[in-house]
Amino acid sequence: MTEPTTHRLTWNDLPESVRARVGDVLGAPVRAHRSAHGGFSPSTAELVTARNGRTAFVKAVTARINAGSMRLNLQEAGNLERITPEVPAARLIASFSEGPWFVLMIEAVEGSLPTLPWRPSVLDAVLETLDVLQREATPSPLPSAPSVPDLIGEDLRGFERVHADPPADLDPWIRARIGDLATAGTDGIASLDGDTLCHTDLRADNLLVRADGSVVIVDWAWAGRGSRVADALQLLASVDDADGALDVDARIDALMDRHGASRSDATDVLAGILGFFVDASRWDIDPSLPTLGEHRRSSRDQLLPMVRRRWEREGRP
User: Fold this and answer.
1) Over 80: is that where the pLDDT of 62 sits?
2) What is the CB neighbour count within 10 angstroms for residue 257?
3) Any idea where the Protein kinase domain is (predicted)?
4) Which of 16, 48, 223, 291 has its CA 20 to 30 A from that of 298?
5) What is the C-alpha to C-alpha distance for residues 269 and 190, in angstroms, rounded to an integer?
6) What is the largest CA-CA distance in the chain?
7) Ramachandran category for residue 244: left, alpha or beta (phi over 0 → left; psi -120 to 50 → alpha)
8) DSSP 3-state assignment of 196?
9) pLDDT > 70: what percent of the chain?
10) How many CB atoms lie within 10 A of CB 74?
């Protein structure tokens, strides 16, 4: 599982040779550029326009700046080359290496990130888009992609690590049932298996909403094969619904019912995601990703009440 930050390179950080190559692909030099916000990687996130009017979204990074981001960009290029047109994704225009830089050029989508806090209508539109994704991409057009359990299974074992080495400030409700929460997280991993194309890293900053309300999914580095509900559960786990206005809990139950899946499986997955954030809240922070610590703590604190409500409603000890 990855997490958002806004510490990014910009267009002006790229060497002239890279900027020239981008212009060559577009058929004319770049005349305008604008930085996008959000996301995990320090890689550029630039919307560029060439003198001939062609546009692209440009992601570029070097291994020296962040080897993990370089690897993810390479993965995303391979995934986008194979994703079929029916998938609601931004398309790959080109990818290339220029010296130590690896560059992705992706279709520039006329849209914006969902406004936070979420509006109910936008959340509904995103969930409908995920239903389209599972209809159009089952079986997965990326049959060699790793399974969702393989991609994020270790992350969802966070409560096992917390059980083995609990922090002093562990929430009392968690401390009292840490063994059962660890078991739930493990059970949740198994329930995420399947043959649907999954984004596997779905949050608000990986979505673009067009003016007509349609939704495009971006940042496909973590594409995998999983259950029909895997992406929607990961998204809903990230939605802050402290006042209950979005009724996320009920949306999760409706999702599971719609796909013939057990509501308790959802609780297991959510427990696993919570375990990831409880464990990750005590990790050291990479200086190149300065907002990570606060994100981990806030994600932990907003998800705990929902897991607790579901746990108690299901009569778990």
Assistant:
1) yes
2) 11
3) 29-317
4) 223
5) 9
6) 64
7) left
8) strand
9) 95
10) 15
Alpha-carbon distances, residue 236 vs 27, 200, 233, 265 (angstroms): 41, 13, 5, 14
The answer to whether residues 66 and 136 belong to one domain is no
What the block records as the tokens of 97 is: 């290496």
Query: Which structural domain range is residue 76 located in?
Result: 11-106
Same domain membership, residue 50 and residue 94: yes
Q: How would you classify the pairing of strands 101-106 and 92-98?
A: antiparallel
One-letter identity of residue 132: V
Residue at which a domain ends, from 50, 81, 106: 106
Q: Residue 206 and residue 221: Cα distance in Å, rounded?
A: 11
Residues 271, 184 contacting (CB under 8 angstroms)? yes
Collapsed DSSP state (helix, strand, coil) of residue 68: helix
Structure tokens at 313: 């409603």
Give the global pTM.
0.91
For helices 263-280 and 230-237, angle between their N-to-C axes, nearest 10 degrees: 50
> d(Cα 24, Cα 100) in Å, to the nearest integer?
18
- Out of 128-142, 157-171, 251-265, 272-286, pick the least confident: 272-286
Residue 5 lies inside a defined structural domain of this protein: no
Cβ-proximal residues to 140 (8 Å cutoff; 6+ apart), any chain = 195, 196, 197, 225
State how far the Cα of 6 lies from the Cα of 39, in Å rounded to an integer.
6
> What confidence tier does 290 reach under pLDDT thresholds 50, 70, 90?
low
Q: Are residues 84 and 143 in the same domain?
A: no
3-class DSSP assignment, residue 42: coil
**Contact by Cβ (8 Å): 178, 159:** yes
Q: Is the backbone peptide bond immediately before 117 cis, with ω within 30 degrees of 0?
A: yes
User: Do residue 165 and residue 271 come from a single domain?
Assistant: yes
The answer to whether the beta carbons of residues 235 and 202 sit under 8 Å apart is: yes
Cβ contacts of 99 within 8 Å, gap of 6 or more: 15, 17, 18
CATH number at residue 261: 3.90.1200.10
